[in-house]
Design brief:
alpha/beta; Rossmann fold; eight-stranded mixed sheet; 14 strands
Length: 210
């Protein structure tokens, strides 16, 4: 299994790659790359992300040929794809952080400010929260039913189709934690910071053949 972790200047790509390396098996290779040709050679693709939606989208678009290769390999070719944090949010149609910015448009919906209905809850959400699993997914196989994951974010993805929601958490109201459709998967939480739960998800991703 060849996994390409896209390097577009995002802050958490090295830790994401290291987490994948920890669970990689014999014959698995994890490559951090900004080369669209490496995406074409990869079996699976990971898009990390930390920071503002517009900045991440701009960084991704600044890599010559990367947007086209992503569309070709993920949407056209059906390769397994995992977006992490802002990398998950970029799958949306729009991000509404500091204006309105177009996303990849792979999943209908928008990214909006996190506004918990409990004034005692701070933004950004930072820390552990329990996943509430809405439906089974291959990346969650074998994980405990009351799994906790680590979050750091001020904005949230609001999918237009609730069928795209795999899991959420309660943070002053429901907050989408995991989206999935076909070969697309995305986590608002950081698997690379979520200890055994995150490593289990990463291991499942390496075996995933949607």
């Amino acid at each position: 299994m060849r996994v390409a972790v896209i390097d577009y200047g995002s802050g958490n790509l090295r830790s994401a790659a290291k987490a994948l390396e920890r669970v990689a098996g014999v014959g698995d290779s994890i490559l951090v790359t900004s080369d669209p040709e490496q995406l074409r050679k990869a079996d699976s693709i990971v898009l990390p992300g930390v920071g503002a939606f517009a900045d991440c989208m701009q960084g991704l678009s600044a890599l010559p040929g990367m947007r086209e290769a992503l569309q070709e390999q993920v949407i056209g070719g059906g390769k397994p794809f995992l977006g992490i944090c802002v990398g998950m949010q970029l799958m949306a149609e729009f991000g509404r952080e500091h204006g309105e910015h177009a996303g990849l448009g792979w999943l209908k919906g928008e990214v909006v400010a996190l506004e918990p209905n409990d004034p005692a809850l701070k933004v950004p959400q930072m820390g552990w929260n329990q996943l509430r699993i809405a439906r089974p997914h291959a990346l969650l196989a074998g994980l405990p039913p009351a799994a906790h994951a680590y979050f750091v974010h001020s904005f949230q993805f609001k999918p237009a189709d609730v069928a795209d929601i795999v899991a959420d958490v309660d943070y002053g109201g429901p907050v989408v934690a995991f989206v999935g459709r076909d070969n697309l998967a995305g986590t608002q939480f950081h698997p690379e910071k979520s200890q055994q739960v995150g490593l289990g998800l990463m291991a499942n991703f390496l075996k995933w053949r949607p």
